[in-house]
Automatic annotation (TrEMBL):
The keyword Manganese applies. PANTHER family: LEUCINE AMINOPEPTIDASE-RELATED (PTHR11963), PEPTIDASE B (PTHR11963:SF20). Keywords: Aminopeptidase, Hydrolase, Manganese, Protease. This is Leucyl aminopeptidase family protein. The keyword Membrane does not apply.
């Protein structure tokens, strides 16, 4: 499918979106030959069903997409996309049946369903174009789809082709496209400029660690996005087992998500000042790798005992968050594929977030509902603060016990985020099996909800 909507087209095939409970009524409005064709082919209007209806001459006359029931739609997202993937290549226009309140997110689902990661193989995907439905903001929907495609491409690319060097280049390309300023601190310069934990995590890899710093816009409220850019995570000296390492190309999913969101913000021209910080590293193994038991001194001056080198994401984020907090942004957001505990808590489909700001949480929840980007608020539970305080340093990067791992990681990060409004996301960044609008592979989470909530969060 195309990532673009097309204007009104007389050659576009009418597409009727039909709820299962409305099928009998709809058939009653059609000529007998059409009604008989639909019944003969067993079309019931169930979610994900699709049917082409021919004219008496055998050419396509219309297409039908099953919209199921409200109960069936509540169990998933992007119901129209479930049927769209079964339609033949062609150009379609929604002729009836799609509720006005659902048009925007169903149109987005159609575009997202067209995503294909084809960098490493040939083959032309079938192109199913959609005429922009009435009432849908074409620019906004296309912009969101393009930002999501960028996120997916970055996550899906293997670490051999998406290491710290290539992630930096992706950020530079984005900055050039939108006239943003970008600076990158690399290698031992991280030590000289006081980013010791970013350096410690990435120094064992062949590609030097770095901090990517992009800024755009000169008026309006100040938004800073911090994305975890661990381009591959072996676990360091606490090496992961092979099955846990298989998906670690996605450990830069936070960086990919904030870059996709930044592209959306800049393309839409939102009236704000945007800063994007990405600590880009590979957590690797060599003679100079950080060790369990080491104590690092962070940019903020807090000391951190390393009890597990596989809890590295919070270390690189901590230095970046400390830098971000020095500017006192109006809203500071971190996004990271941070803990397995978050996946155990809410599974792969929900994006958990942490904030102390009830108003921000309500705005994000409302945005998530509008754009079909499910999220769930988790607590900064203060009684667990003691769990991240070891005996010989200020903080512990991997407290023992096995409980509340997502919360203790979030509490660790909060120590570096300053006193302003802060939202931390512990995302998965991966679609484990194909679903409507979400092919298997890398996926953005939380970005659409945050984009939709920005006017409320920043009074834009």
């Amino acid at each position: 499918m195309s990532h673009r909507l097309i204007p009104a087209n007389d050659n576009a095939l009418p597409l009727h979106v039909i709820e299962s409970s409305d099928l009998t009524h709809w058939l009653g409005t059609q000529p007998d030959d059409i009604a008989n064709w639909v019944r003969t082919n067993g079309f019931k209007g169930n979610l994900g069903e699709a049917l082409m209806v021919p004219s008496t001459g055998g050419k396509p006359l219309m297409a039908l997409a099953g919209y199921g029931s409200a109960q069936a739609r509540a169990r998933g997202r992007f119901a129209l996309a479930a049927a769209a993937g079964k339609l033949p290549e062609g150009c379609y226009r929604v002729a009836s049946g799609l509720p006005e309140a659902a048009r925007s997110h169903e149109t987005l689902g159609w575009l997202l369903a067209g995503y294909r990661f084809d960098r490493y193989r040939d083959g032309k995907a079938r192109d199913r174009q959609l005429v922009v439905p009435e009432g849908v903001d074409k620019t906004e929907i296309e912009t969101i789809a393009a930002g999501e495609a960028l996120t997916r491409d970055l996550i899906n690319t293997p670490a051999a082709d998406m290491g710290p060097d290539q992630l930096e280049q992706a950020a530079r390309d984005l900055a050039e496209q939108h006239g943003a300023q970008i600076e990158v601190i690399t290698g031992d310069d991280l030590l000289e400029q006081n980013f010791p934990m970013i350096h410690a995590v990435g120094r064992a890899a062949a590609a030097a660690p770095r901090l990517i710093d992009m800024e755009w816009g000169d008026t309006g409220p100040h938004l800073t996005l911090v994305g975890k850019g661990v381009c591959f995570d072996t676990g360091g000296l606490n090496i992961k087992p092979g099955n846990s390492m298989a998906l670690m190309k996605k450990d830069m999913g936070g960086a990919a998500t904030v870059l996709g969101l930044a592209q959306m913000i800049m393309t839409l021209g939102l009236k704000l000042r945007l800063r994007v910080l990405i600590p880009a590293v590979e957590n690797s193994i060599s003679g100079n790798a950080m060790r369990p038991g080491d104590i690092l001194t962070s940019r903020k001056g807090l000391t951190v005992e390393i009890n597990n080198t596989d809890a590295e994401g919070r270390l690189v984020l901590a230095d970046a968050l400390a830098l971000a907090a020095e500017d006192a942004p109006d809203l500071l957001v971190s996004m990271a594929t941070l803990t397995g505990a978050a996946r155990v808590a809410v599974g792969p489909d929900l994006a958990p977030f942490f904030t102390d700001d009830d108003g921000a949480a309500l705005a994000l929840a409302a945005g998530a509902g509008r754009v079909a980007d499910p999220i769930w608020r988790m607590p900064f539970h203060a009684p667990y603060e003691a769990d991240i305080e070891p005996d010989i340093a200020d903080l512990d990067n991997a407290p023992g016990g096995g409980f509340a791992g997502a919360i203790t990681a979030a509490l660790f990060l909060r120590r570096f985020a300053g006193e302003g409004r802060y939202v931390h996301w512990d995302i998965y960044g991966w679609q484990p099996k194909a679903a409507p609008g979400r092919p298997k592979g890398g996926v953005g989470q939380g970005a659409r909800a945050l984009l939709d909530a920005l006017p409320a969060l920043l009074k834009l």
